Amino acid sequence: MKFAFYPGCSLESSAKEYRASTERVARTLGLQLEEIPGWVCCGSTPAHMSDRILSIALPSHTLLLAERMKTEGVLVSCASCYSRLKAANDAVKRDASVREQVAQAIGATYEGNVPVYHMLEMVAKCMDRPGFEEKVKRKLKGLKVASYYGCLLVRPPSITGFDDREDPQLMDRMVAALGAEPVKWRYKVECCGAALAFTNADIALKLSGDILEDAKSSGADVVAVACPLCQSNLDLRQRNIEKYAGIDLEVPVLYFTQILGLAFGYSAGALGLGKHMINPVPVLKKRGIHV
Question: What distance separates the 2 farthest-apart alpha carbons in the chain?
Fold first, then answer.
């Protein structure tokens, strides 16, 4: 299957390991990713907090470019990009006035008809097809994983339509299929604080700290994420969280594609495991997973 791939800004910069693991996993699963030429930033939080039409025009421009590629749809890895592209589709479909204003902004009419998929959705579809088990070269038996979906994949449910809004299972299913153990915990769809880490750090540190504490107390060895900003808040700022809350955490935070890539037999270097602040290799070795 061929998809128009939208990396978004994070996969071009702070989350290069997410892109590397996504591309390797996609190849193994038989997903052909063709990067959208001329794509622009989706606007993320700043755009829709400042100018509604701008927040719809930015992703619509990219979706219009993707429409001309004649693929199965747009595939994204970033939960924020996924949210903004899906929201743009919804807005231009529902409101003719918005559609006209967006057309004026981008110089062409976009009708909102390009399907948008998150990489996790496609992984789940591939798991249900014959031959998936044969792709697993390294069983992750003994590894306990807290599947963290965050808030943007599942909300608003009327727009994303992503799994169950309160208790999503796609990532948990993936973890179990790889021989690892999905832990039961309470914070799988709670907000990490997102961009508040830049404007009101105390709130982000508190929210992210609660997530990591619950994951650890629930027995998780690692947290799996599907969003670059969630990964930054939980991994990059983990030492700050420990100082803020006066606790010891030491919880590795991996992209779900890195976990899948490990099971497919890729090396730690190929998956960018060395780029994380909290080194996951000692935990993996402790569980008998040699990378």
Answer: 58
CATH number of 2-119: 1.20.1050.140
Summarize pLDDT for 110-163 with one digit per residue, the tens: 999 999 999 999 999 999 999 999 999 999 999 999 999 999 999 999 999 999
Residue 13 exposed, middle or buried by CB count within 10 Å (0-12, 13-18, 19+): exposed
Residue in the structure block whose two tokens are 């021989």: 179
Q: What percent of the chain has pLDDT over 90?
A: 95
Q: Where in the chain is the domain with CATH 1.20.1050.140?
A: 2-119
Burial letters 247-260, b for 16+ CB under 10 A, else e: eebebbbbbbbbbb
276: which 2 tokens?
A: 């994380």
pTM of the model: 0.97
